[in-house]
Amino acid sequence: MSLIGHDKAWREWRDAMGGERMHHAWMLAGKSGLGKMQFALAAARELVAEPGIPQPEGHHPDITILMRGPKDDKEDRKREKGEPFETKRNITVGQIRAMQQRLTTRPTLGSRRVVIVDPADDMEKGASNALLKSLEEPPAGTFFVLVTHRPARLLPTIRSRCRIVRFPTVSDADLEQLLRREAPEADEATQKAAVIAAGGSPGAALDFVERDLGKLFALMQQIIAEGDPAFALRGRMSELIGARPKRERILATIDLARSVIAGSISDISPRDYPAVVEAHAELVRLSGQAPTYNFDAALLVAEIGTLLASAAPLRERANV
């Protein structure tokens, strides 16, 4: 994906690199799908590169990336084969401690190294506490870059030790241009729906097209406009999502429902505001829990549908 909206972030990063002392901990904050991880990797490569030292094209020995690992040995074998694999729910304290053990040695190629945590929101409590110790007493030449979609979920003591770079959402016009370039196979109606649903996130817009979420988006719009007293629309929504959807599809469904509800605000009566705000707040709660909680997928999909129906105009809300 071509990255857009990163100009200000690059200026902040490069100005700091050119200063007398580079801050040791950075937080890249913004909604999911803005390309923060791609920025982190490119920025890390700039930081560790030194004149006269050849830099590898692929894996860099002085850039450590901490992400949620494979769920079990079976999923680990899938990863080794280059196949899609299910991940653990969190970045574990064991991962942080293994990284800290590596920090007892010198960088491999030059005098600097970078540790990227993506997303830092997913660290379990013990991992957060362990990372805090490294942020408080960073080894010489070590820099930390924390990618975060929800900064408020991080410990205040971690946030206070980081320089924050905020990534803004992208304009609809820029998203439309991106989709025409990156997803030319999508028809105009799908591209327009993707822009509406993405809420300024390039990654979400492309995900919308790749996952073929157009029909689901239209159905959600119908539920929130008409209600669903006979439960027929919610049944169709469950069919579209599938009987055993992967966690990624569930997360995409929640984010899509949030976008639909947020987009309905301008078309509703003030008397319906409380219901819409309550439904949106509940979807925000679910989006925070879904990456780590072990939900029953069918029940969760039913709850999403019910929240959409509850946000329909009052006259359409019977038998929600």
Query: Which consecutive residue ranges, at least 5 long each, have pLDDT under 50?
Result: none
SSE class = alpha/beta
Q: Number of DSSP strands? A: 5
Question: Given this structure, which CATH class of the largest domain is correct?
Answer: Alpha Beta
CATH superfamily of the largest domain: P-loop containing nucleotide triphosphate hydrolases
CATH topology of the largest domain: Rossmann fold
How many domains is the backbone divided into?
2
Helix content: 40-55%
| Beta-strand percentage range | 5-15%
Number of helices: 14
Rg of Cα set? 22 Å
One letter per element, helices H and strands E, the order comes to: HEHEHHEHEHEHHHHHHHH
The biggest beta sheet reads: 5 strands, parallel
Note the overall shape. elongated
Per CATH, the architecture of the largest domain is 3-Layer(aba) Sandwich
Give the N-to-C terminal Cα separation.
40 Å
Describe the secondary structure blueprint for this structure:
Layout: H1 7-17, E1 25-29, H2 36-48, E2 63-66, H3 73-80, H4 93-102, E3 113-117, H5 125-136, E4 142-148, H6 156-159, E5 163-166, H7 172-182, H8 188-198, H9 202-210, H10 214-226, H11 232-241, H12 247-263, H13 273-289, H14 297-310
Parallel strand pairs: 1-4, 1-5, 2-3, 3-4
